[in-house]
Structure formats: structure tokens, C-alpha cells
Q: What sequence folds into this?
């Protein structure tokens, strides 16, 4: 009873000290429950509304038109009572008189049948079938802003004019559609025909939406199997499952955000642990009294465990409230994409979050709680009680509980991470990475303190007094320099790594290979426009790189010298060798290709010939002289391998793995890809002119796409930066609480120094030196690790270039130093303002 | 019951602050009988506080044996020592050492609570003890709301809560003015008579020591004089 009262009153009395760490736990738990609660509720809603989200019972989606056998298969099911609504999606340029053309996603549908489920909401409100016809177009609201359109305005898409019939407020299958580039427009299939955009070979994605009859019923599995067989490369989804296009992304982001939340929670818990440590440090007297009065260590640990749990619980409860807010916010953010009414709040995730919050907090407070055992009751008489130095083995045995508790913490966190990610392997990676970073930081911190001590002791230089005292302060007993360094260092490392990777990646994309690579693409160039576009490109006098126009035809590799491609064991990315790709033909060998084996063809060669890249040749065991069988739009043809090549530079937009001669691809549906590099100021003019001359050609400005990418990256990095900024804040809190924890010693020392004639300025310098060194070292360690990690990430995993960035590193180090000095100061103001006599009399 | 309450044999205590070894106690043999009132005197640094710590089982000797109420305590573990302290020893410290977050009454009850005892009679005893030391109206006050003398009275009540056979006091009047100091001493002596405990007092105050039936003087870690006297 009294123990409870004590725990409760102590916790209450020191609440202000714990406010920050409670915030830490709350942020972690809040993020965790919000993310997981939303994700699960969302998943349920997806299942419940699977039909609405597809606008059908079953959909088939593929790039390219249906082949004859595919159409026959669909007709077979239609004959049995299934109903079909066909949707074509593509990207194109759209313009209004006097405005620059805009890249839009076009969705062509049949308003009489689409959607089978759900409803398209328009503004002004009207049934889709009533207002959408071959002469009208429905647009998204961002487009109405960009082109300043109202209902009735006239816009041009491809070669035809359309009248705007409304703004789309909601479309049920928005998230299961194929293309999400730029603003969206909806037209009828007849309308699309009228635009002249769809010519044999044009790039478009086809969706076939089926509604199954009630009676006589069609077995879902049967129709699914039948269609899957006819459409081997298509995605076939039915209402019984949640749409993989959404769930895969959802799963991934849930895992990612859960782990990021866990990091926040860990940092918060680290804060709790140091706060508890400092708290216990101030409670040494109480602990010693309790021991004098007959309390066993376990009883005292019980009291402080209770306090810790109170903190964890408070943080957890606050976190659940935050989490409910987060969860309520998600549907509002996603309202445009999903027609969900509301997402129920589930108490199980709240409980889960509180449990994880308390568990992580407890795990981290094991070491400081264990230290309770070492408090000697006799310290009531004498404060410092060094014992005779024990033998090495004895000391190791004394450290055993600490080592065990460290292992327990790692195992516990690994377990939680593995459970959150639903993968033990992920948990192991997570904890391995965390442990490695912690160990590395701790080792550097230890070495540094050691070096500093040796330096101060053996340095032949006469250092100024402030410097000597400040440095000495760092390695004094009771000064938790290592934990301050580790905590601050981790925060700095996270933030800077993310910053470095992000900026490098963006620079990499934006710079898209400084020279040689194109920055404007022309897609959907058909045979009809080919000559004219080629001439137009050739006229671009300020082109930095010679414009190119390459052919693109869909083709799929079937046999390698008689062996089916399916027989090769292909893993991961290499599996794409089995799918349809866009291939191109060339007459002469491009300059940036290096011939490795065989010989290149001449333009006059009438045989079907090709060259294979070294990597693909190796993967599929291809040698010159072999015959490859290809299939395209239901037709197959054999091509002889004439050469093996190596690609020197990466050219975005075209596939250099397989190059054909003109004869090999004769007669296949072909469209052309134009590439050119222009000085950025000329691009807008080029875009307008291209649109004027070739309205059906889509011009993509890489810079615009990069802006979209940048938006996404910015949002992700904002979340991660927020969390890592939190880690830095926790580091500063730890520093401040350490200073507060050593206040007694500092107060006494300051008083003595003042009595001996030291001015406040000297004291201020001593403290500043101490905090600045801590901040400087944490900054250098964090920056060093961040540079190492970002280098590893960029070179190993992201295939990007890496170079040492001075400015961000130096800025980070300077800011960390400033932060450390500020945090230290905040905690020391009271010490300095005390008069020496008050302090010494208290002795 | 004729075993001595405390028996020390060849006690030494050394510490190592890192640079050199310091021998604080250098061979102490001592027996304290039940009912004695012993004052341990000595200049600062003579080792008297260290000796008190050893007697109380707050610390273990480097070598030598200590028997408390017949039990060998010099080699016991931390938790076993805590149990013995709770049962057999009452403490009074120079700086009171009350738990700041507990009221006067809760502080007095604490030793019983820690031993796992419960019941209404405990509360009754705690209240009675507080009344005895003259704090009738201050049961629910927290330590910060009490004066130094009042805090030491609470500490006295706490020391006697579990009727310990041995009472150890470390400069109990050291932080008080002479009037308050005298009152505390009188209370301590009368409570001790009432409860029948053995009293060991560490002090460098001659006047205080003169109240004792036996005065032991330490210098540089050894006993230099041990005089028995008639009670005053």
C-alpha cells in the first residue's frame, strides 16, 4: 500500500520531468496504433467493398488489345450470361485554346454499362450515361483549375474537340485503374475513337469489367481460370479477394510505417530509461533509507517498476488518443480516392499499442532498475563508497545481469519488430541494424572518452583552465557522456542519412545523367506521323543531344534454340524475360554499344537478325548463331542471333537488351519513341509546337515527372524526418536530464570555484566547453555514420552515384553542437545563479 | 538470552578510491551486551561512522566476524541483511532521512509495511508513537511541512515502530540547536527505557556521550579507550 502510494506520489511530484519522455512514448504508440488500426480497418473495408472498388465482379487488365483467342474466350462467357464493360486507359495531351497543353490520363468507357457497382458522381450532379456522350468529356477538378475550364468549355484531345460535361467527384474504381499520371479525364469509347489517338500499336491499357449473372449462375473460379488461361500476362481479380494493386502497397507501407513508428517508440523509451536513471540518481537517498529500514532490493525495484509502468501507461494512453486522431485523419486524406463511409475504430489496436508502449518502456528501464541493487545503504553516511578493486572475473560476473538485460532488450525489440512486420527475418534485420548502430556509436563514444582522458592527463600543452575543466567534466563519474553521445548520434545519423539519400537521388534523377540522356520524350508517335516527327525533331537547332526516333513493338521471347523460356530458372527481376517487352530495330550499331561476339548486320540484310546484351545472353545461355522464337500479337517468328553486345551507358526509355534488324520486326504493330535533350527554357515552346503539329503525340517533360516524384519523396521524407528529428530532441532531453542529474555535484563545484574567486564567466566557459565537445562529437559521429550509410544505400541498393557532401555534414555538426550547448544551458541556469554561501551552508 | 546483542571479532575495513588503498578500521574487537547504552566517540576520520555501518549490517567488513543477536551477519547477502535490519535494528540519523513523499504517519508505518505486516493495530501503534514524541496534530504532514526537530521526532517514532532489540543513532542531535537537541535526546532515552532496546550512539559531542553507560573512543581505526560508567 505505502509502496504504491510512494510510487504514485513520486511519479506525480516529478511529472514535469517526465512530460517529454511521455510525449516520446505517446508519439510512438500513437503512430503505431494509428497506422495499424487504419490499415486493418482499411483492409476490412476493401474486402467489404471489393465489388465497388473494381466496379465489377471480376476484372481483367492487360497492356495491349485483346487478341482473337482472348476475344473468343470473353465471348464464350458473355454467351453464358456474363456482361462485359470495356475500359481503355491511356495518356495523352489535352489543350484549351490559348493554354499550354497538359499531360492527362484518359479513361474511355461505356457509360451505359460502367460502372457495374458503385456510382460516378459528377458536379453538377447528373447520371453519367445522361451527360457523357461522344462529344463530351468529364474532367477532374485539378484539370478544371489548370486549364480554367467550366461546364460547357471546349477542349481539344487528340484531333477532336469535346465539351466539358462535369467535374468527376468520385469514381468507384479510381484506385484499381491502370494509370495515375497527371489529371484525369473520362470520355466514351466512341469519343476516344473520334480523337484518333488509338491507332494500331498505340500504347494503352485495357480493362475488361465483368458482371456475373445471378441465374443461371457462373462459377467465379471457373470464369477466372478460363480468363487467366486466355490472358496469361494479365492481372485477373475477382470480388472474393482484395485488389492486389492496393493491398500490396498497403502491406508494404504498413510494415514500413510500423517500423518507423517502432523507432520513434524506441527513442521515446530510451528517453524514459535515461529519465528513470536520472530520477533514480536523485532518489539514491530514498533508496538507501528504504534499505536501512529493511527493504529488499526487489521491493524497491518493484516501486520503481510501478513508476515506469505508470509512465509507459500514461504515454500509451496519450498515444492511443493521438492514434485515434491519426486514424480519423487517414480517411479524410483518402476521401478523393476511396468511396468509404467511415472506418471503425478498433479497441484491439489501442490495447496492442498500449501493451507495446509499456513493454518497450519496461525493456529499456531494466538496466537502470537493476542498478538499484548496487545502491549501498551505508551511503547514508558516506556518499562515495569505492570498494577494494575486485578481480576481473568477479567484475565480469557483476556485469552479467547488465549483459543479459541488454540481450533481453534486443530480443524483445526484435520480437516486436518481427511481429509488426509479420516476418521474423525483418525483425532480425531491424534489430541487427539497430544493434550494430548502437554498438558502433557506443564504441566510438568509449574510445573518445578514453582518448580525451589520456589527452588531458598527458598533454604537454598547458591548456587554458576552462578547456581543461570542461574536458575533464565529460569523463567524470556520473556524467553519462556515452549515452548522451549515442542518443544524439542516432538522431543525427537518421536525419542526415535520409537527407543525403533523398537529395542525391533527386539530383540524380533531375540531372538524369548530366550529358547524353534526353529530357523530353515523345510517345504514341504512330507510323503515320513518323516522318513528320523525325523532321520536326531534326529541326530542333538547340538540341543538346542528337534527337532520336526509335521503333517500339511488343514482343515476347518464347523459345531459345528450341527450349521454352519457362524452363530457365529465373529469379526476381530477371523473371521479366518471360513477359512481353517493347523491342526496337536499328540499322547501324549505336555508338554506345560495344560488340562482344559475332558481327553486326547491314541495313541491306534481308535475314531476320538480332543482337543480345551480354547479361541477357549469360542468363539465357545465348550464343551467336542460335535461333530465338518471338511472339507478338498472336504471331510468332524466328530470329537468328548475330551478335552479343554490351551497353556502355543507360538510355532511359528504350530497351537495349534485345536489338533487332529492320527485317526481323517487319509487319509488327509499331509506334515510335522520340527522345531529345533541350535546354530547359526551350521545352515549353517545343511542347506547344509539338502539340500544334501532332495533337495525338504525347510529349513528356522529364522535369514534370520529376516534380511528381519529388512530391511523393517529400511526403515520405517529411514523415521520416519528423520521427528522426524526434530522436534528436530525445538526445537533447537526455543531455539536459544528465546535466540535471549531476546538478548537486555541479552546484557544489561551482560554489567552491566561486568561493575561490572564479568569476561566472569562467564557469560559463567551463560548462560551454563540456556541452560543445559532447555536441561536436555526437555531430561528427552521426555525420560520419550517415555518410557511410548513405553511401552504402546509394551505391549498393539504389545504383546511384555518391559523392561526399561537405555542406550538409558541416551544417549538421554545427547545429548539433549548438543544440547540445543550448540544452546543457537550459539545465544549468539554476546552478549558476545560486550564491556560493547558500550551497556551502547546506552541506 | 545471555548472548551479547553485538559481538565483533578482528574487524577490518579497507577501501580503494582508485589510486591507493585506505584502511579505515584496523582490527576491532568489541562486545555489546543487551540493555547497554553505548556511545562511540572519535574525531572525524576515526572510522566511527564506518563502524556504525558495519554494526547495522549496512556494509560488510573486509575481514573479521560480526554477530548480531546471535546471527553471523558479516558474510550475508544484501537481501538477507535487509531482512535482519528491518527486524532487529532501528535507525536514527543526523539528517533525519525521512521519505519526502510520505506523510509522518506513513513514514512511521513504513518499516512494518516493508516487512509485509498489515493490520489496524499497526496504524494504532504508529499513531501512539507519534503522540508519544509530541506530534499529536501532525500525523498527516509531509516532511517538508515539519521543522528539523519535528522531523527527527518522526524518525524516532519510526525507529521504534517494530520494537527492535537494537537502536543505532548517528549524531541524532547534530543538526539541531541545543534546546531541540536536548528534547530529542530525552525522548530517545525515555522511549528506549519504555521499549527496552540496546542503544548505540555515534557522536563527537562529549555532553551527549556523558549520558551513556559506556563510552568507546576510536582513533585511526582502532579502539583507544573503552570506559564503563554509571548511568546518569
A:
Amino acid at each position: 500500500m505505502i509502496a504504491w502510494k510512494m510510487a504514485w506520489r513520486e511519479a506525480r511530484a516529478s511529472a514535469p520531468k517526465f512530460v517529454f519522455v511521455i510525449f516520446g512514448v505517446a508519439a510512438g504508440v500513437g503512430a503505431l496504433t494509428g497506422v495499424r488500426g487504419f490499415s486493418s480497418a482499411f483492409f476490412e473495408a476493401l474486402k467489404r467493398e471489393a465489388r465497388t472498388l473494381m466496379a465489377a465482379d471480376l476484372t481483367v487488365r492487360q497492356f495491349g488489345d485483346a487478341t482473337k483467342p482472348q476475344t473468343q474466350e470473353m465471348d464464350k462467357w458473355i454467351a453464358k450470361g456474363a456482361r462485359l464493360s470495356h475500359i481503355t486507359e491511356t495518356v495523352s495531351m489535352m489543350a484549351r485554346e490559348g493554354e499550354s497543353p497538359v499531360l492527362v490520363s484518359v479513361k474511355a468507357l461505356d457509360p451505359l454499362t460502367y460502372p457495374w457497382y458503385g456510382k460516378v458522381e459528377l458536379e453538377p450532379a447528373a447520371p453519367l450515361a445522361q451527360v457523357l456522350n461522344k462529344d463530351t468529356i468529364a474532367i477532374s477538378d485539378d484539370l478544371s483549375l489548370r486549364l480554367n475550364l467550366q461546364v460547357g468549355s471546349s477542349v481539344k484531345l487528340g484531333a477532336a474537340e469535346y465539351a466539358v460535361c462535369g467535374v468527376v467527384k468520385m469514381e468507384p474504381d479510381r484506385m484499381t485503374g491502370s494509370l495515375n499520371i497527371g489529371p484525369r479525364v473520362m470520355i466514351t469509347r466512341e469519343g476516344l475513337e473520334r480523337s484518333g489517338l488509338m491507332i494500331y500499336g498505340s500504347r494503352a491499357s485495357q480493362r475488361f469489367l465483368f458482371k456475373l449473372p445471378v441465374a443461371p449462375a457462373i462459377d467465379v473460379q471457373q470464369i477466372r481460370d478460363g480468363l487467366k488461361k486466355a490472358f496469361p500476362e494479365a492481372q485477373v481479380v475477382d470480388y472474393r479477394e482484395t485488389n492486389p494493386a492496393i493491398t500490396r502497397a498497403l502491406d508494404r507501407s504498413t510494415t514500413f510505417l510500423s517500423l518507423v513508428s517502432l523507432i520513434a517508440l524506441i527513442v521515446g523509451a530510451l528517453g524514459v530509461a535515461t529519465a528513470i536513471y536520472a530520477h533514480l540518481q536523485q532518489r539514491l537517498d530514498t533508496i538507501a533509507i528504504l534499505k536501512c529500514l529493511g527493504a529488499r532490493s526487489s521491493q524497491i525495484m518493484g516501486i520503481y517498476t510501478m513508476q515506469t509502468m505508470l509512465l509507459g501507461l500514461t504515454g500509451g494512453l496519450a498515444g492511443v488518443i493521438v492514434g485515434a486522431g491519426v486514424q480519423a485523419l487517414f480517411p479524410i486524406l483518402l476521401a478523393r480516392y476511396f468511396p468509404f463511409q467511415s472506418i471503425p475504430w478498433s479497441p484491439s489496436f489501442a490495447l496492442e499499442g498500449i501493451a507495446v508502449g509499456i513493454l518497450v518502456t519496461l525493456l529499456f528501464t531494466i538496466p537502470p532498475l537493476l542498478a538499484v541493487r548496487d545502491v549501498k545503504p551505508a551511503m547514508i553516511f558516506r556518499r562515495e563508497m569505492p570498494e577494494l578493486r575486485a578481480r576481473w572475473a568477479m567484475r565480469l560476473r557483476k556485469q552479467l545481469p547488465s549483459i543479459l538485460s541488454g540481450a533481453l532488450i534486443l530480443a524483445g525489440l526484435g520480437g516486436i519488430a518481427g511481429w509488426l512486420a509479420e516476418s521474423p527475418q525483418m525483425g532480425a534485420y531491424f534489430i541487427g541494424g539497430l544493434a550494430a548502430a548502437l554498438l558502433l556509436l557506443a564504441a566510438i563514444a568509449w574510445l573518445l572518452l578514453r582518448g580525451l582522458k589520456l589527452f588531458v592527463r598527458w598533454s604537454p600543452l598547458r591548456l587554458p583552465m576552462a578547456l581543461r575543466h570542461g574536458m575533464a567534466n565529460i569523463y567524470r563519474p556520473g556524467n553519462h557522456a556515452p549515452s548522451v553521445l549515442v542518443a544524439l548520434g542516432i538522431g543525427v545519423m537518421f536525419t542526415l542519412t535520409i537527407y543525403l539519400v533523398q537529395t542525391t537521388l533527386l539530383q540524380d534523377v533531375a540531372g538524369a545523367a548530366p550529358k547524353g540522356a534526353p529530357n523530353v520524350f515523345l510517345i504514341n508517335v504512330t507510323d503515320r506521323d513518323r516522318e513528320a516527327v523525325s523532321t520536326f525533331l531534326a529541326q530542333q537547332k538547340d538540341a543538346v543531344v542528337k534527337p532520336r526516333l526509335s521503333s517500339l513493338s511488343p514482343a515476347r521471347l518464347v523459345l531459345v534454340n528450341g527450349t521454352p523460356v519457362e524452363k530457365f530458372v529465373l529469379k526476381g527481376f530477371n523473371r521479366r524475360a518471360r513477359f512481353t517487352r517493347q523491342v526496337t530495330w536499328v540499322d547501324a550499331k549505336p555508338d554506345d554499344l560495344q560488340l562482344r561476339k559475332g558481327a553486326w548486320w547491314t541495313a541491306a540484310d534481308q535475314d531476320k537478325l538480332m543482337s543480345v546484351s551480354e547479361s541477357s545472353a549469360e542468363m539465357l545461355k545465348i550464343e551467336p548463331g542460335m535461333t530465338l522464337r518471338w511472339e507478338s500479337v498472336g504471331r510468332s517468328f524466328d530470329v537468328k542471333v548475330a551478335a552479343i553486345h554490351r551497353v556502355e551507358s543507360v538510355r532511359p526509355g528504350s530497351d537495349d537488351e534485345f536489338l533487332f534488324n529492320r527485317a526481323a520486326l517487319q509487319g509488327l504493330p509499331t509506334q515510335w519513341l522520340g527522345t531529345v535533350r533541350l535546354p530547359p527554357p526551350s521545352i515549353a515552346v517545343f511542347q506547344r509546337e509539338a502539340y500544334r503539329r501532332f495533337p495525338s503525340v504525347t510529349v513528356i517533360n522529364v522535369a514534370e515527372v520529376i516534380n511528381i516524384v519529388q512530391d511523393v519523396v517529400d511526403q515520405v521524407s517529411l514523415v521520416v524526418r519528423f520521427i528522426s528529428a524526434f530522436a534528436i530532441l530525445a538526445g537533447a532531453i537526455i543531455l539536459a536530464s544528465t546535466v540535471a542529474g549531476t546538478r548537486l555535484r555541479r552546484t557544489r563545484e561551482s560554489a567552491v570555484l566561486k568561493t575561490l574567486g572564479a568569476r561566472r564567466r569562467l564557469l560559463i566557459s567551463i560548462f560551454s566547453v563540456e556541452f560543445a565537445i559532447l555536441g561536436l562529437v555526437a555531430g561528427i559521429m552521426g555525420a560520419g555514420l550517415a555518410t557511410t550509410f548513405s553511401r552504402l544505400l546509394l551505391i549498393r541498393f539504389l545504383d546511384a552515384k555518391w559523392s561526399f557532401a561537405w555542406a550538409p555534414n558541416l551544417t549538421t555538426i554545427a547545429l548539433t553542437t549548438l543544440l547540445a550547448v543550448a540544452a546543457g544551458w537550459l539545465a544549468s541556469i539554476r546552478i549558476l545563479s545560486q550564491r556560493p554561501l547558500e550551497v556551502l551552508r547546506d552541506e | 538470552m545471555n548472548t551479547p546483542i553485538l559481538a565483533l571479532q578482528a574487524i577490518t575495513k579497507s577501501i580503494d578510491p582508485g589510486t591507493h588503498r585506505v584502511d579505515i578500521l584496523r582490527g576491532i574487537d568489541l562486545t555489546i551486551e543487551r540493555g547497554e547504552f553505548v556511545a562511540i566517540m572519535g574525531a572525524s576520520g576515526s572510522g566511527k561512522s564506518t563502524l556504525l555501518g558495519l554494526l547495522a549490517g549496512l556494509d560488510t567488513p573486509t575481514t573479521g566476524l560480526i554477530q548480531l543477536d546471535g546471527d553471523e551477519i558479516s558474510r550475508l547477502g544484501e537481501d538477507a541483511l535487509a531482512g535482519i535490519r528491518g527486524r532487529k535494528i532501528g535507525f536514527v540519523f543526523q539528517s533525519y532521512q525521512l521519505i519526502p513523499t510520505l506523510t509522518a504517519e506513513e513514514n512511521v508505518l513504513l518499516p512494518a509495511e516493508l516487512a509485509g505486516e498489515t493490520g489496524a493495530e499497526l496504524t494504532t501503534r504508529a499513531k501512539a508513537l507519534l503522540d508519544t514524541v509530541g506530534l499529536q496534530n501532525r500525523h498527516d504532514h509531509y516532511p517538508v511541512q515539519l521543522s528539523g526537530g519535528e522531523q527527527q521526532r518522526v524518525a524516532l517514532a519510526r525507529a521504534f515502530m517494530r520494537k527492535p532489540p537494537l537502536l543505532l543513532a548517528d549524531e541524532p542531535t547534530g543538526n539541531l540547536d541545543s534546546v531541540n537537541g536536548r528534547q530529542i535526546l530525552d525522548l530517545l532515552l525515555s522511549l528506549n527505557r519504555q521499549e527496552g532496546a540496546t542503544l548505540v550512539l555515534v557522536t563527537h559531542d562529549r555532553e551527549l556521550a556523558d549520558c551513556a553507560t559506556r563510552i568507546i573512543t576510536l582513533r585511526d581505526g582502532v579502539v583507544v579507550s573503552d570506559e564503563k560508567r554509571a548511568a546518569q
